[in-house]
Amino acid sequence: MHAIFFKEVKMIDLKENQTAWYLIFICWAIAFIATAGSLFFSQVMEFPPCELCWYQRIFMYPLVIFFVISLINLEASAFKYSLPLVILGWITSLYHNLLHYGIVPESASPCREGVSCADIWINWLGFITIPMMSFFAFSIILIILTIFYRRYLR
């Protein structure tokens, strides 16, 4: 793990590798949809975000910028900047889901005032909630970045 974050990451030219460009583009699209979705839920649907939702937003929103800069500059530099945010966002969303589904007691929640982190605002198909969508988004981005690293930056 230390080598990934602190070692000089080998840069590749995305102009010459279309598959690598598509992987970064998919990460950008997921981050963009997640960002737009969170803004839609809070601004249009007027669902107030809980404290854990705010943390997940803090980790997701910059990813849109990191990935688009990487796509415009046609280089793979987004990897080393986005991976820590994705890992922290994934851990936060995992904890939020454990709290949301009652595996972790609500007394262990950081949400002391305002909206409870265990509140269910939507429940599509009986299991798709806002924290679950966040977990899926961070998980897919983490999987794609892992594939990207193993295939192009190792």
TrEMBL record:
Keywords: Chaperone, Disulfide bond, Electron transport, Membrane, Oxidoreductase, Redox-active center, Transmembrane, Transmembrane helix, Transport. GO terms for molecular function: protein-disulfide reductase activity. It is found in: Membrane. The chain crosses the membrane at residues 20-42, 54-74, 81-104, 124-149. Pfam families: DsbB (PF02600). GO terms for biological process: protein folding. GO terms for cellular component: membrane. It is a multi-pass membrane protein. InterPro entries: DiS_bond_form_DsbB/BdbC (IPR003752), Disulphide_bond_form_BdbC (IPR012187), DsbB-like_sf (IPR023380). Belongs to the DsbB family. BdbC subfamily. This is Disulfide formation protein. It comes from Halobacteriovorax marinus (strain ATCC BAA-682 / DSM 15412 / SJ). The gene is bdbC.
